[in-house]
Design brief:
The chain crosses the membrane at residues 44-61, 67-84. With 145 residues, the chain is mainly alpha-helical. It has helices at residues 19-58, 66-109, 121-133; strands at 2-6, 9-13. Bound molecules: zinc ion.
Length: 145
């Protein structure tokens, strides 16, 4: 039995599957968690950008001290820089994840099972990955989310 520890759950995988395939998949899971975190950060930046930007434009109309408006504009500028950084990170991790996905598919394609003869390990692995993580290892495209 081969085991893969993800979070609190320790899950069993088809016994013939090569450890390097599982390691690759573990790396893939780690990266996809990173992508989720990076997207969350990007979302927060967009939210703050809209907030500070709107405040900078509407405060003068509400008769507030122009200093507040300037402060909000400065804040929007800083948030925008954070957004650019977050956006670059999202792109970077996304490309990285695509490469890993491609590797994983290639590995499964050539048969990453130690049984040598025809068996159902790889198909079982694909099925389990879909069941547990909703990650498709069937086609070339990366499933969103
Ligand atoms: Zn097998």
């Amino acid at each position: 039995m081969l085991w893969l520890t993800t979070g609190q759950a320790t899950l069993a995988w088809p016994s013939g599957l090569s450890p390097s395939t599982l390691r690759l998949f573990e790396e893939y899971l780690k990266r996809s968690e990173e992508l989720r975190a990076a997207r969350r950060r990007e979302g927060i930046c967009i939210f703050l950008l809209v907030l500070t930007g709107a405040a900078a434009f509407t405060l003068p109309w509400l008769g507030a001290n122009p200093v507040f408006s300037l402060l909000c504009a400065a804040g929007a500028f800083l948030v925008f820089r954070c957004y650019l950084k977050a956006s670059r990170r999202v792109n970077h991790v996304f490309i990285n994840l695509n490469v890993l996905h491609h590797h994983l598919l290639g590995k499964l394609e050539v048969g990453s099972c130690r049984h040598g003869e025809s068996c159902d390990c790889v198909n079982e692995f694909r099925r389990l990955v879909w069941q547990r993580y909703h990650i498709s290892l069937y086609e070339e495209s990366l499933t969103p989310g």
